[in-house]
Design goal:
The protein is α/β, with parallel strands linked by helices and 209 residues long. The protein has a single domain, classed as HUPs (Rossmann fold), CATH 3.40.50.620. Helices cover 41% and strands 15% of the residues. The chain binds adenosine-5'-triphosphate.
Length: 209
């Protein structure tokens, strides 16, 4: 099974990396593909150029078996819709089951995504739950869970798509927003992200404002 983790990665940090590793190990994924978005649909645009965000992802995952940087959204240009990315991954990896990794916050807004039903026909969802996070109480999400939730990662391997697994992950209180603010305030982001990423930030004077 292939895990798919999309994000702005502006910059990538240990929150992304640790939770991806938690899921890869818990669900026994063959790999996790980190896919920086080109153009955000539901949030502010990334402030850093695509090539640099990809460079940071590549530096961050160096040496971790199974972690792969994937530039398909950057190459595609335009708005980055997850459904298009999954269609393209299906074309490239027809014999693999796809698992879309997303945070609980993202899952709670899943109804607003483009073609959520099609997404579920192309991939399983693995919702990364940090301690204390709750599933939204809205009717659509609750009925989706009633029909699609699965508590056994092993069972997902035997189905092509359409299952939702809620997976607990390590809680690391770090975000790209926090890192950008630290740097803008003249502080070091050291120990919140890999050293190779910090060096790229330094070299390119990123986030100084
Ligand atoms: P920003 O602060 O700019 O919004 P971010 O740190 O949330 O960025 P994104 O690249 O937008 O990073 O996130 C990609 C995915 O990683 C999202 O699904 C998000 O929920 C998840 N994520 C980000 N930070 C963490 C963290 N500390 N622990 C677990 N998941 C995280």
């Amino acid at each position: 099974m292939i895990g798919v983790l999309g994000g702005t990665f502006d910059p990538i940090h240990f929150g992304h990396l640790r939770t991806a590793l938690d899921v890869m190990q818990a669900v026994d994924l063959d790999e996790v593909r980190f896919i920086p978005l080109h153009s955000a649909v539901h949030r502010d645009q990334p402030e850093t150029a695509a090539e640099l965000r990809l460079q940071m992802v590549t530096a961050a995952i160096a040496g971790q078996a199974g972690f792969v940087a994937d530039d398909r959204e950057l190459c595609r240009q335009g708005d980055s819709y997850t459904v298009d990315t999954l269609v393209s991954l299906h074309r490239d990896f027809p014999d693999h089951t796809l698992c879309l990794l997303l945070g609980m916050d993202a899952f709670n807004g899943f109804a607003t995504w483009r073609q959520p039903e099609k997404i579920l026909s192309l991939a399983h969802l693995i919702v990364m739950q940090r301690p204390g996070e709750k599933v939204a109480s809205d009717v659509w999400i609750q009925s989706l869970l009633t029909t699609h939730q699965c508590n056994d990662a092993e069972k997902m391997k035997h189905e092509a798509a359409g299952r939702i697994l809620i997976q607990e992950v390590t809680q690391l209180d770090v975000s790209s927003t926090k890192i950008r603010s630290l740097i803008a305030a003249g502080h070091s982001p050291r120990y919140l992200l890999p050293e190779g990423v910090r060096q790229i930030i330094d070299k390119n004077s990123l986030y100084l404002r």
